[in-house]
Design brief:
Helix content: 25-40%
Structural class: alpha/beta
Order of helices and strands: HEEEEEHEHE
Largest sheet: 5 strands, mixed
Number of helices: 3
Radius of gyration: 14 Å
Shape: globular
Length: 143
């Protein structure tokens, strides 16, 4: 399935789109949640956000050029952008390796294209300013 396939915006289609994007960027896929052919993504310890439970990204990759972990989350609906669970996930993944400068982990968030502007507004409200440059929103438009 490619990004141009039918205007489907289910969670599963967005996860597949994340994998496609990661591969296109030259990232090595280390795990993907619920996708045949990939091991499950490893859970990342939670240092005290929300429920304090470890969190699992939809896709985890490694960027060999920058030598950093790359996380991917799929957000198919408006409600999933700023739910308590989503905010916890953003903080856990952005806190991962935060002290490593250019090697700090990066978070890609795949969503329907019509949610990009709203997500950008939300992220500046809920996420610490020092993390903004490591959040990469990606919109997927209908074909």
């Amino acid at each position: 399935m490619t990004l141009a396939d039918a205007g489907e915006t289910s969670h599963a289609s967005l996860v597949r789109a994340l994998i496609e994007l990661f591969v296109g960027e030259g990232f090595e896929i280390k795990g993907a949640k619920g996708v045949d052919g990939y091991p499950p993504a490893s859970a990342i310890p939670n240092d005290g956000y929300g429920s304090s439970r470890p969190r699992q990204a939809d896709v985890v990759g490694f960027d060999p050029a920058r030598r950093r972990i790359v996380f991917g989350l799929a957000r198919p609906h408006r409600e999933s952008l700023d739910s308590e669970e989503s905010l916890e996930e953003y903080n856990v993944f952005l806190d991962h390796n935060a002290g490593l400068g250019d090697r700090a982990s990066v978070l890609y968030i795949m969503m329907p294209e019509d949610l990009l502007a709203e997500f950008t507004s939300l992220i500046t409200h809920y996420i610490h300013r020092e993390y903004w440059h490591r959040v990469i929103p990606v919109g997927r438009g209908p074909s």
